[in-house]
């Protein structure tokens, strides 16, 4: 198993913070974790509010634990709140289902770790996470989508944008 290097983690975080400043966003905090959610690097801009480490960590944890972006985890929480409450409790309250947590993949699609970004809107945090991954020359799930199930990604139904691997039971 490959792990993200410290140099890659720092490049991701530095690119995120630089991009946030260039866009004049609120102060950003970013974390990069290895598989198993062990912290590799974290930075919090001056002026960022409290518990930003916990929020960034929770977003990265959500991405790793569920194998998808934390924004998709948020969507799942809205669709299936009881299921998501169970997963959050089972994780010891570590999953934070808000956009900004993304898996980091290498050129073969292998997961090297995850990034969590917090400080601005959910969409901006997500955008910054993707920007940082690309700045380090690494890949996101979307970049590896054609690799499909071989690397743990399901193809989606183009009409709905949802995974089509199983039929949903009527409610």
Molecular structure report:
This protein has one domain (6-144): Haem-degrading domain (Beta-Lactamase, 2-Layer Sandwich). It has five helices and six strands. The chain has helices at 6-22, 52-66, 70-79, 81-90, 122-135; strands spanning 29-34, 38-44, 101-105, 111-118, 156-157, 162-163. α3 crosses α4 (81-90). It is globular.
Topology:
Elements: H1 6-22, E1 29-34, E2 38-44, H2 52-66, H3 70-79, H4 81-90, E3 101-105, E4 111-118, H5 122-135, E5 156-157, E6 162-163
Antiparallel strand pairs: 1-2, 1-4, 3-4, 5-6
Helix pairs in contact: 1-5, 3-4
As a whole number of angstroms, the C-alpha radius of gyration is 16 Å
CATH class: Alpha Beta
Alpha-beta content class: alpha+beta
Categorize the overall geometry. globular
Number of strands: 6
Looking across the biggest beta sheet, what order are the strands in?
2-1-4-3
What's the structural domain tally?
A: 1
* Strand residue content: 15-25%
The percentage helix is 25-40%
Tally the helices. Answer: 5
In the CATH hierarchy, the architecture is 2-Layer Sandwich
Poorly predicted runs are 157-171
**Topology as a string of helices (H) and strands (E):** HEEHHHEEHEE
| Average residue-wise pLDDT | 89
Characterize the main sheet.
4 strands, antiparallel
CATH superfamily: Haem-degrading domain
CATH topology category name: Beta-Lactamase
């Amino acid at each position: 198993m490959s792990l993200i290097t410290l140099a890659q983690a720092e490049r991701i975080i530095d690119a995120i913070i630089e991009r946030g400043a260039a866009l004049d966003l609120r102060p950003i905090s970013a974390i990069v974790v290895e598989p198993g959610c062990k912290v590799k690097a974290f930075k919090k801009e001056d002026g960022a509010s409290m518990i930003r480490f916990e929020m960034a960590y929770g977003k990265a944890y959500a991405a790793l634990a569920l194998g998808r972006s934390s924004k998709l985890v948020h969507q799942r929480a809205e669709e299936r709140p009881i299921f998501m409450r169970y997963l959050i409790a089972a994780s010891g309250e570590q999953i934070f289902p808000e956009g900004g947590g993304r898996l980091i993949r290498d050129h073969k699609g292998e997961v090297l770790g995850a990034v969590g970004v917090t400080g601005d809107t959910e969409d901006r945090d997500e955008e910054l996470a993707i920007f940082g991954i690309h700045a380090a020359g690494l890949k996101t799930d979307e970049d590896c989508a054609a690799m499909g199930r071989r690397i743990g990604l399901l193809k989606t139904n183009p009409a709905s944008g949802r995974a089509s691997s199983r039929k949903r039971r009527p409610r």
